[in-house]
Amino acid sequence: MSVHNSIKRVTTHTLQEMKSKGEKISMLTAYDFSMARIYDEAGIDVLLVGDSASNVMAGHETTLPITLDQMIYHAQSVVRAVKRALIVVDLPFGSYQGNWREALKSAIRIMKESGAHAIKLEGGEEIQESIKRILSAGVPVMGHLGLTPQSIYKFGTYVVRAKEEEEAAKLKADAKLLDEMGCFALVLEKIPAHLAKAVSESVHLPTIGIGAGPDVDGQVLVSHDLLGITKDFNPRFLRRYLDLFDMTKEAVQRYISDVKNRDFPNENESY
Ligand code: KIV
């Protein structure tokens, strides 16, 4: 048996078991081969090929511009790198909101062309029919409620969602619906911790929080934020583990200086 085959893959069932045992789920975004390989070797449970690629990889202000073809390109790169983690891919804005046929076609393209294991989409009751059809096709679905960045122009701001009773009640109802429909997990983004706790306790599926406090079944962060590659994004929920922007800048400055001073390459670095 090769080393590759001996690695036990994380599946949607693994996540369900982890919730049952009270073991927290770790999830991070990944968009390219090299970084996905590091995260997978580190032992991350779930890698999300997030449409946040639109922000951190392409430099757009929102997640709206990224296309389905671009998401598939990122997902293919991540799939080539990963041996253990479950790989989930975001359906990008405009690829599923129109009708269930469009949603199903987009989900199938992602699964067929990238080799990823599941898709994620934003919303609840409004996209119920699309979720049902995607699930019927055998594609595992991760939901996403709370601050859903594809609706940023409807919200008008990135502040905490569902602080008011009406929005909290809709979120609870949507979470219950996604759970009953058979979604395998649910991202809860930027909502009060007490609400995230209540939702997590009331549903069967594992919840993954980002800015949703500690009482969820797992946590997700955008990898560029955790590594400190992004500099000007400092929400309260973010914990930075590195300052890669400054570390990389300093390394490149040293390289520039070595080139200018004729220090690089030296004799040992030449043929
Ligand atoms: O696209 C993304 O990175 C996400 C996470 C923030 C959950 O959806």
Descriptive key words:
about 270 residues, alpha/beta, TIM Barrel, 2 domains, 8-stranded parallel barrel, about 45% helix, binds 3-methyl-2-oxobutanoic acid
Distinct small molecules = 3-methyl-2-oxobutanoic acid
Instruction: Give the low-confidence spans.
Output: none
Distance between the termini: 40 Å
Number of domains: 2
How many helical elements? 12
Mean pLDDT rating: 97
CATH superfamily of the largest domain: Phosphoenolpyruvate-binding domains
By CATH reckoning, the class of the largest domain would read Alpha Beta
**Strand arrangement in the largest pleated sheet:** 1-2-3-4-5-6-7-8
Helix proportion range: 40-55%
Number of strands: 8
CATH architecture of the largest domain: Alpha-Beta Barrel
CATH topology value of the largest domain: TIM Barrel
Q: Give the biggest sheet.
A: 8 strands, parallel, barrel
Summing up helix and strand content along with how strands pair, one would put the structural category as alpha/beta
Shape: globular
Task: Specify Rg, calculated over alpha carbons.
Answer: 20 Å
Beta-strand content:
5-15%
Task: Give the topology string: H per helix, E per strand.
Answer: HHEHEHHEHEHEHHEHEEHH
